[in-house]
Amino acid sequence: MSHDTQAFRERYRAGIHPRYNVWLHGGFVLLYGAACLAFFIGGLDDVKPWEWLVVPAALVFFNWGEYSIHKNLGHHKTRAGAMFYKRHTGDHHSFFVAGTMTWDSARDWRVILFPAWLILFYSVGLFAAWWLLSFVNANVAGLFSTTMLAGYLSYEVFHACEHLPDSHPISRLPWIRHMRRLHELHHRRDLMQTHNFNLVFPLMDWLKGSLHWEPLEPESPMTRMQHDVEIARSPDQVLAYASTATRWPEWHPSSLRVDGPAGPLPAGSHFEEDIHAGGRAGHLSWDVTEYSPGRCWRAVARGTHGLHLELTYECESTPTGTRFVRTLDYGFDGLGMRIANWLVMRRKIDRESAESMAQLKEMAERTIERPATRQHDLA
């Protein structure tokens, strides 16, 4: 994560009202939308075959509206759309950039979902359209309004799915995965004003020539393991200790020997490690990719048996010290090792990772001195 993006996220989160509740926000939108849908659907009666043609026509109309508003108001500053432009380009595209597309906590949905009042404003227009069309044909009025409101709700749902963590099961559904990729490309600075404005179905992007696709680099299936522990030391102290790779054998049961520089390892550092993990001995060659003192440390490695992995340490200040989060993503190139990992190894590695957290806490609190507190002279 770039420094600028992280700094913006921290400022944005600090500006969210303490009483904001994302579940009330999202729940109101879905419940109000469902109530309106029930009203429109309840007015349908003996729908003729030709009347059903309103549904695809309304879907195309909604797709065009989504495209036009997103492109012309969300990414071009106008007097009429100043609020939308600020919230979309100013906030949303600063909070999420290509490569950093996922939220960290549910409160981050504040920058994903539309304001709750917008569905009220939108529904007023739909009720007006329903009332006018009812003078012509009640079924046409109900089908049109139902389809347009369903489009709004699907936009909200799809957009939220497009910012889910990569490991979430919904993220791997075929169509969601496809649209997530298009949306991530849209969040690239060089593409956000010109390409991929549809979020549910890219019809208008295709028709208007603004559809842009780049396949992801092929990757092996990865196993993710995440463990955390509370440590009664400061984030700077904890991360400095944990990112000193030469001390890993002190607290991680899988680490046998580390050959590399002493002390916390900055980005660009390289070291070697002998391991015994998941019941197998092996060797890893490591490269550190990120080190933000007191906040985040990340490294990648290639090893024997076709092993490749990414290890991330994150620290968060708590009233009692630090919440330390260790995230391990690993995979194997060969089919045989993938099967062995699925059948046996991943459970062993998970136990070893959980054990390492307990030992890290014990060693850190035993070997790291607490910061000296200021003494105030009493006169």
UniProtKB/TrEMBL annotation:
Keywords: Membrane, Transmembrane, Transmembrane helix. The keyword Transmembrane helix applies. SUPFAM superfamilies: Bet v1-like. This is Fatty acid hydroxylase domain-containing protein. It comes from the Bacteria. The keyword Acetylation does not apply. Gene3D superfamilies: 3.30.530.20.
